[in-house]
Amino acid sequence: MTPERHAPAASGDADLVTVLQALSDPVRLEIVRQLAGCDEESGLSCGQIELEVTKSTASHHLKTLRSAGITAEREEGTRKYTWLRREVLEGRFPGLLDAVLCAAVAEAPSSRR
Amino acid sequence: MTPERHAPAASGDADLVTVLQALSDPVRLEIVRQLAGCDEESGLSCGQIELEVTKSTASHHLKTLRSAGITAEREEGTRKYTWLRREVLEGRFPGLLDAVLCAAVAEAPSSRR
């Protein structure tokens, strides 16, 4: 199967409030933090993102991030890989993602830094 | 009456999620945008903040910002003046407020810039 890369149709239109709402959740912040630490090209599959929530809850949070245009995903066979849309976000909201990531890392338990 | 300056007891403890939640509302973003344009020492009274919402709704949003430690207020007679806690926020979340303000100004109607 050819890898499919797709971003939500509304991703380019997500406004600041939507992006801030999507970021204002501890689980979603943790997802963003882990995605920031991986290679943007490869991304992370659901199984590679370590979260202390159920799979369905994780899916919900991943969808919220994707709908806000913060992440995008591609399908490879039965797996979905998610990555941060760093360049798009930086273009729309300069400095925002870096500031949030910096603060999220600073607040994370030391074992996760 | 001696002007009273007070910040909420929990202001120093507001975490990133609380701050992002408080910022992720169009009315509260507009309040922050207007406060950013005023002298920090003087602040703005409720009547000086121009919002298209009722007084009680404005009070609710002002309280949310204050509870998150984003703003503080002082009382002068019967009036309350609100200002942005820029230095505190910059110390806790470097670059975050500036990035949010930059994006909020960019998204605001041109007549308000």
Task: Describe what this molecule looks like in 3D.
Two copies of one chain form a homodimer. The first copy, chain A, has 113 residues and is of the alpha+beta class. Chain A is built from five helices and four strands, in the order E-H-H-E-H-E-E-H-H. Chain A has helices spanning 16-23, 26-36, 55-67, 86-92, 96-107, and strands spanning 4-6, 44-45, 71-76, 79-84. In chain A, strands 1-3-4-2 form a four-stranded antiparallel sheet. In chain A, strand 3 and strand 4 (79-84) form a beta hairpin. The first copy, chain A, is globular, with a radius of gyration of 13 Å. At the A-B interface, helix 1 and helix 5 of A face helix 1 and helix 5 of B.
What is the strand and helix layout of this fold?
The structure is a homodimer of 113-residue chains.
Chain A (H helix, E strand, L loop, with lengths): L3 E3 L9 H8 L2 H11 L7 E2 L9 H13 L3 E6 L2 E6 L1 H7 L3 H12 L6
Antiparallel strand pairs in A: 1-3, 2-4, 3-4
Helix pairs in contact in A: 2-5
- H-E order of chain A: EHHEHEEHH
Name the chain pair with the biggest interface and residue counts per chain.
Answer: A-B, 22 and 22 residues
Strand order of the largest sheet of chain A: 1-3-4-2
Q: Average pLDDT value of chain A?
A: 85
**Counting H and I runs of at least 4 residues, what is the number of helices of chain A?**
5
Instruction: List low-pLDDT spans of chain A.
Output: 1-11
State the major sheet of chain A. Answer: 4 strands, antiparallel
**Class computed from helices, strands and strand pairing of chain A:** alpha+beta
Beta-strand percent range of chain A: 15-25%
Principal-axis shape of chain A equals globular
Q: How many E strands of chain A?
A: 4
Ends apart, CA distance between termini of chain A: 36 Å
Question: What is the radius of gyration of chain A?
Answer: 13 Å
Oligomer: homodimer
